[in-house]
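Worked Example 4.2. Consider the chain below.
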Amino acid sequence: MKKNTQIIIIVGVVAFITLGAYFLLMFARESPSSKEEENKIQRNDEGEKKSEVDKEEGAITDQAVLEAIGSFVGEGIATRKYDGEKFSTAVRAQLSDPPKEKFYESWLVSNGGSFISTGKLENAGNAYESRFSSDKNLISYKKVVITEETEANGLDGKPETHILKGSFKD
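Applying the procedure from the previous section yields the following structure tokens:
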């Protein structure tokens, strides 16, 4: 009888420890810090997917995905920001090197079809990049285009062959 009592006590202690460990793990998963981290990730994802007013800086920020046009191959991303005083944009595109005597240029395009060059894309190792800033509020320029330009013409303000395009969200 004494041996049966010892076995029952040992089984009870093991069960108690197992249940205790289970509840501790469940509590740790539902801790406030885990919930805060989960909410932070959700806010970041939403901020990347749509235009949003950044409450800390009062800035409008947005992102556009750039896709290849026709038979061209490549992709990219453009970001823009307006903080009430300064407008800025950055473009990063995965493209093969342009043909000899050519270069890539990025543009902002208004709904009315007017183009503003945001500069020549520079080779940054595994991508082509450009950065642009202006004291003018250009937030109404909702489209981005990457073109292939003729080196001899330089930055002449006339877009040539369109290779990538995308749009910022409203």
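Residues 2-43 form one domain. The longest helix spans residues 2-29. Compare this with Example 4.1 before moving on.
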